[in-house]
Amino acid sequence: MSEPSSQPLQPSLSSSIRKGGTRWGEATIKLWLRICTALSLFTTLAIVVLLAVESVEFFRNVSPLEFFLGTRWVPLLNPSSFGVLPLLWGTMLITVGAAVIAIPLGLASAIYLSEYASDRMRAWIKPALELLAGIPTVVYGYFALTFVTPMLRNVIPDLQVFNALSGAIVVGIMILPTIATLSDNALRAVPVSLRQAAYAVGATSYEVTTRIVVPAGLSGVMASFLLAISRAIGETMAVTLASGQTPNLSFSMLESIQTMTAYIVQVSMGDTPSGGIGYQTLFAVAMLLFLITLLINVISQWILGRFREVYD
Amino acid sequence: MPLSSESAQKQLAARHRKSRMFKHLCAAITWSSVFLLAMLLVRVTMDGLGWLDWQFINSFPSRIPERAGIKSALVGTLWMIVMVAVIAIPIGVSAALYLEEFSKKGRLATLIEVNVANLAGVPSIVYGILGLAIFVRFFALERSLISGALTMSLLILPVIIIASREAIKMVPMSIRYAALSLGATRWQTTWAHVLPSAFPGIMTGVILALSRAIGETAPLILIGAASFMAFLPTGPMDSFTALPIQIYSWVSRPQREFHELAAAGILVLLAVLLLMNATAIYIRNRTEKRLK
Amino acid sequence: MAVVDTADAAADKKRAQEAVLDLQEVSVLYSGKAAVKKVSCTVWRNRITSIIGPSGCGKSTLLRSLNRMNDFVDGVTIEGKILFANQNLYGDEVDPVEVRRRIGMVFQKPNPFPKTIYNNISWGPSINGYSGSMDELVERSLQQAALWEEVKDRLQDSALNLSGGQQQRLCIARALAMEPQVLLMDEPCSALDPISTAHIEDLLFELQSRYTIVIVTHNMQQAARVSDYTAFMEMGHLIEFGETDQIFTRPEKKRTEEYVTGRFG
Fold first, then answer.
1. What is the value of pTM for the model shown?
2. pLDDT of residue B290
């Protein structure tokens, strides 16, 4: 065995172990990390302040009553009208339509994935769903215009070229993978022992799934619904391409409508002079959009928080 | 409970039938989604393949469909990938490292976590408005590549933070304890052991986030990306266009040729995305192998 | 006990008079609940001190407080003093990183870095500014850990390819590469098979002449075989501390006798 090195790493026992002053490198790095983390707070602050300040300006010129209760949205022409309900309605038509498609189909896919599919099938389906989720929204807009609408027009001759139905269908397809993957995660988190207990009393797989598993995973499933709805509300390009730019309060899904997001795109594609009332409508509508999606996301997170507690 | 009575048996048979039908229904629905994906891809390919050739890739957009090409948009998108990566990855990974390795669990940490989760759910168009007000107008960066890149970076920052945190959480505590017990500082431990171990997971999350950034149109419209650009950007302050913008612009035209051009553009965009994801998978496999 | 020839015996005896760690009424509390209660004892230089006791008696907690690894647990408070080189380890002016450079640790479950065998050993010294020959240091450390012969031809292999016993010896070599004043070992053999355990116990005899070792073990016979001094803990209290011979053959406290004769634990 060789002798200790002549250049000891450690000073002898009696040397001090006081703090040195050479840790400033570490302190600098920590500062950088802190700044990066703080950026997320600044972003939220920036969004809130920006939207609030400009909205306040807007509401100096337009009464909130007119905005929230008015039924005509003609902000850029004379005579102007600033009732946001048509935009809200348009967003709602799309969202509800998309949810009607995506929730049952997405949940069914999630059930199939978690309860019935073999590992081999999962290996094909999960990537396919991820692929669907990764397709840019403008592609869905293209699909709506060039495929869905023409196909629907064969069946429904009254369908306009730009219509809410195509938009709803396409957005539904877009958010379906979200529901499927998140609900699948939620259902898989339900302990196997729960299923086994149900099977042991002679239940069929349908009964086990619908009466035991889904209720047990309900928080996660519902959170996935809310997340998907939030995405549908914020969806822009597909609805702009598919459903048009006409603010419309009618119940018909066969006509052109305008969502809040489509309006924002419309305004910014033209050259809006900053400071004018047109510019301000951008922020008022965006503020509304932001608040609605924030509310839904917060509720969804709260539900997910409760979901985690149950299994801890 | 009489198990052998006829009515009980009939009931059981009915329940089994219902169960089988349910299973088949779920299967059919699931495979329909896969089929839908296939149909979408086939449709786009059929429409666009005819227009996809070298001339298409190497030409600028034009009012004449036969002469139109995707060069400026492709180059713009490539610029964006690089710039967004350079900006968003260090900041996002740094924030994730801080939250996982350095900050004490407490009210502030929870607040930041909730905040990041909320930011991840904000519609992309709101980020576009933010970018317009802050980068284009306030910082007077105009409708340039850098405005677009900064806006997109803000957009995907929450996604990167969340994905990186997950990857960092997966590194076992025992590795950190081993390093710390040798007299390493927290940063030395993080840099030499935690980060390399978490790298595959972080890489995957980062590429997914970048893919999302590349496919987004709305924020770029808001900050004023051009929809008709007949030259290439030479620097970060130049105006630019991007693949999704070009596609949108073509789809918006009524003529069928432009729709087919859009399809060709979509194929190029999907090819870029595919390449990015393949790179991610490759890098992940390589680094995972080295760690074994 | 280690065998040393007479010329070294005198030097050895002189060194053994030196106290390396002096624990004075040390208590460790997790969020107010005491896991270690007012422990006082001494760790002598170049001797092996073992800490024994039933599960949950606080021996690992006490061990971890000796190199300030407890700092990483939320809500931990330390009372009392631990003197090392005439300084309280927990003094305000003391940098825990410096403490850990001088007091090394081997953990219960082998935790090699997912890197090469060479890098596992060289990393600690390199970040601490070692400027000598790294190859020599790596070889020396592996020899001290009785692992050199088995790995000398594959230093660039991943450490994860080694067997459990080899990984643990690698972790020992890694700690030794820092040339610590004290080596703490937290049940180092409990995750290993009997043959690997025997290897490591042999290793301890070799190491004793050059290192001060504190070893926590739930295996009484191991403590009796290997250590010079033994501390017996129960429910956070130090029941008895003395030379191993005495603890196992003529324990002063009844509780100690009951434990070492296997009546509980």
1. 0.88
2. 63
